[in-house]
Amino acid sequence: MGNRLCIFSVSATLFKYYIIISLLILSTSIFIPPRRASGESLKVDVVSPLIRVFPTTPPKNKSRTSIEIWSARNEYESTQIVLQANKEVTVDDVLMSELTNMKNGAIISIKNFSYAFPEYVFIGKHTPETPLAELDGVVPGLYPDPLEKKPSLRFSGTRSIWLTWYVPQNTMPGDYEGQVLVHTSGDLLKIPVVLHVWNFTLPEKPSLYVTNWLHDSKIEFSYQVQRGSKSYWDIVEKIANDMQAHRQSVIFTPLNLIRMTEYYDGTYEFDFRDYEKWIEIFKKNRFQVFEGSRLDQHESYYIRRPVGLSFKRLDFSGSQLNTAAGQKYLTLLLQALYQENIKLGIQDRYLQHIFDEAGPEKTHLYQEIAALVRRAMPGVTIIDTSDMPEEKRTGMMDIPVTLIGRPVGKTPTGPHAKWGKWWYTSVSTKGKYPNRFIDYPLMKSRMIPWISWREGMTGYLQYGYNWWYTPSGKSPWEDVEQTGKYPPGDGFIVYPSRNRLDNAPVSSLRWEAFRDGMEDYEYLTQLEKGTKKMQEDGERTAPNSECKMLREQAVGLLKEIHAKLISAENYPRDYQSVELFRFRMGAVLNNMDQCVGKN
Question: Among 196, 199, 172, which Cα is nearest to 105's?
Fold first, then answer.
């Protein structure tokens, strides 16, 4: 009887919150003046993290000046405070009180709170082959994207402050209250915060495999550090932390971390110290999978010969893979790597790339190198992007990573079945498709995991976590279009730090939106699994029980989501409907543990 009363009680509360969140999302909230000291006049508004706040964003007639958010445990939740001033203002500090559960005194510590200032980057032209309805902002113009953590901000006009809370796994469910204090020149804004913590937890191990390729050469160039130095490894550690916090669990691993020495007597020696350090860092950050870099690129090799008291690095490129000498080098390298992976305990979660986007003209060479890889590394799984039809991929990759929107192949079978189906976005994923270009609405970044769930995908690949390549030689902060070679932001989702005292990667609005989508993927997965379990248990539950009502709500909600989430081109564009779906999923999952498995 206690469970029944609990469910009724919570259901009534959630109904109240459902009405509240609907009003908040549809921006019909009543204006509440911010509590402030005397001083300069500032207009304040609290807006969705899926909204870009441009320098030209006009004030709204009705503003929301209190913060109310919902979160599962082990989840990050963000919002934005928009500030509009008609003269120069300095934000001197942003402070957060502890969030306190007024019923039982439990707290969420301030160490789980962070803030950043969205900075602007210049875009000269829009992504081509894209209808205006699929674009955001006006070009040429300034776009908010980097989220820079710095102590203060001086501005006039319109700017925003990005706020993020992390809810630890051991947090008690309930309602937590506190306030954000924004200290400006002559002004103190006190913004009330209510954080509702759901009664479920997102899994520590992400359900969707994700890899955004990390390019170590760009770390060396952008930070002016030498590989193997303490500064280099400090940056790699911070990148691993950032990726893990954004639910990335697969790491692109450069094989040139392995130093291969060829002696004149025909013997070889392998130095795995840098490779082992790399693996150690990412294992410590709970990465599940390691993918060896492409074998067709010279960046994947570090081969040297002794010359006097030093060494001379040999030039080795993918073009040498079709020679006997090249295949000898490769065989020796992969055999040594296979034994090293066994020693490190990662041989069963190691994937190997050969060529990227291999076409029909490379089929024979790919098959030849794939056979070599399988001989040198028995049981290894080969993964690569390819849009070749399945019948033409015989003897090639075990996991074909197809382009979003293209026909998806069958799920791998045999020992490779555990990896499921993968797809990717690239420079050619334009128009109505979701992608993470800076001039695309943030919804497109968030929708990638949603559509992956809809299509039954278990892996997503993107080539650029930090492809900070600019033919102009400028920083990516100054050249997000990479001198017109790529759509804006295509090659990177984070920025190199401008603060040499920190060196942590600088996040972006797009990276945060993608993380929200990854967390949504967990909501969707838990909802789908829980609903199936409730349906299986349906025969054993009382016909008029609250569990029956919850089961019907869950089934209906999944149908609604499928009706809106139709394909890689046909998905919701309005952030309000997605945020409402997410709230409704949370409301069902909040009670599901009381029904799943009950009889």
Answer: 172
Say whether 226 sits in a helix, a strand or coil.
coil
Angle between helices 575-592 and 442-454 (to 10 degrees): 50
Q: Are strands 422-424 and 459-462 parallel, antiparallel or unpaired?
A: parallel
- pLDDT, residue 14, reads 52
Q: Is the predicted pLDDT of residue 294 greater than 80, yes or no? A: yes
Q: Is the pLDDT of residue 217 over 70?
A: yes
> Do residues 446 and 495 share a domain?
yes
- CATH code (residue 19): 2.60.40.10
CA distances (Å), 345 to each of 36, 206, 283, 338, 342, in order? Answer: 57, 20, 10, 11, 5
Exposed / middle / buried, residue 97 (Cβ in 10 Å: 0-12, 13-18, 19+): middle
For residue 97, give the DSSP letter: P
| Cβ-based neighbour number of residue 330 at 10 Å | 20
Sheet (strand 209-212) strand order: 209-212, 459-462, 422-424, 399-403, 381-385, 350-352, 289-292, 250-253
State the CATH number of the domain containing residue 318. 3.20.20
Least confident of 14-18, 48-52, 508-512: 14-18
Are residue 496 and residue 544 in the same domain, yes or no? no
- On the question of pLDDT at 6 being above 80, the answer is no
* Residue 377 and residue 279 in one domain: yes
Structural domain of residue 223, as residue ranges? 211-502
- Per the CB < 8 A criterion, the answer to whether 209 and 460 are in contact is yes
**Within this chain, do residues 246 and 311 fall inside the same structural domain, yes or no?**
yes
Query: Rounded to an integer, what distance in angstroms lies between the CA atom of residue 61 and that of residue 95?
Result: 27
Return the pLDDT at 127. Answer: 97
Strand 303-307, strand 310-313: pairing = antiparallel
Tell me, yes or no, whether 88 and 18 share the same domain: yes
In a domain, residue 458? The reply is yes
State residue 91 phi and psi, 5-degree precision.
Answer: -85, 110
Question: Between residues 540 and 208, which one has the greater pLDDT?
Answer: 208
Residues contacting residue 1 through CB under 8 Å, at least 6 positions apart: none
